[in-house]
Amino acid sequence: MTGRKRLIVTGREGQVVRSLLERGGHDRRFEVIPLGRPELDLSAPDTIEDVLRVAQPDVIVSAAAYTAVDQAEGDEEAATVVNGLAAGRIAQVAATLGVPVVHLSTDYVFNGAKSSPYLETDQVAPVGAYGRSKLAGEQAVVAATSNFAILRTAWVYSPFGANFLKTMLTLAETRKSLNVVDDQLGNPTSALDIAEAVLDVAANLIANDDLALRGIFHMTGSGEASWADFAVEIFAQSTLVGGPSAEVGRIPSSAYPTPAKRPANSRLDCTKLADVHGVRLPDWKHSTAKIVERLAQAKH
User: Fold this and answer.
1) CB within 10 Å: which end of the chain, N or C, has fewer?
2) Which residues are catalytic?
3) Could you read off the pLDDT of 150-171 as tens digits, one per residue?
4) Which residues contact residue 266 at a Cβ distance below 8 angstroms, ignoring those fewer than 6 apart?
C-alpha cells in the first residue's frame, strides 16, 4: 500500500469506532475517518450511498449498529433497519465503489446451545430480535458483495462508553458484594484489540484479491470465562492498582432475568482468522489488566 488509505468507519461513539480512532492515530497504513449522525444515519438507509460516495473510501468498516439487546425485543423493526437493511446498503455501496467492506457481527447469531466454541460453519439460529437483526445484516452483506470480511465478536469492553468492565468498577465503588451470572460462557474481547485486528484485516483485503481472505471469521479475545469469572478478574486487577473491588457471588441466569435471552455459550473458535489472516487477539486477562490500569490512571 502506498500512502495512507482512507478507512471510513460507520458511527462516532461506539467502542470499536473510538478504539479505531485511537489505534488509527498510530497506524501508518490508514487514515481513520468516522461517519455518524447526523451526516450518516443508518435508520435512513436511502441516504447512505451519497454520504459514502463523497467520503471516497479505500475500505469501509461497518461498525455502527443497534446494540440495545433488551430494547430490541420490543423494537425489532428499528433494529432490523439499522442492523439489516443499512448493513446491506453499506455493502452495496462498497461493491459499487469497488472497495472492500469489513462488517462487524456478533455471537448472538447462534442459539448458544452448543457445548464447544462455535465455528464459522456452524448453523446460525438466533433466539432474539437483536441476533435476528444482526443475522439479517450478515446475509445482506453476503448478497451485496463478494469483497467482504464479516467479523463476529462478543463480550466487548473498552475504556469507552458503557460496558461490563466499567459497570463492575462503578458498582464496586458503592457495594461490597455483587451477584454475577456464572452459567454463560464467552470470550471477553477488548475493543482496542478489535481495532488492531480490523486494521490488519482491512490491509489484507486491500493488498490481496485472494478469495480466501474474504468470508466470515470469528474474532474474540483468547481464553474464555463466565461473566462471574470476568468480574473476579476485573476486581483482582483493580485491587492491584488501588481501584474499587467487590466480592463476587456466582448466580444462575435464572436469578437475573432479562427481556432478551442470552446465549449460554457465546464462545467463538477463532482458528480460521489466525490461519487465514495471521490475526490472533491477545488473552482477555492481559487486555483486561491494561484497561483497568488505564481507567485507574485516568481517575488520578
Assistant:
1) C
2) 130
3) 999 999 999 999 999 999 999 9
4) 107, 110, 112, 154, 155, 184, 185, 186, 187
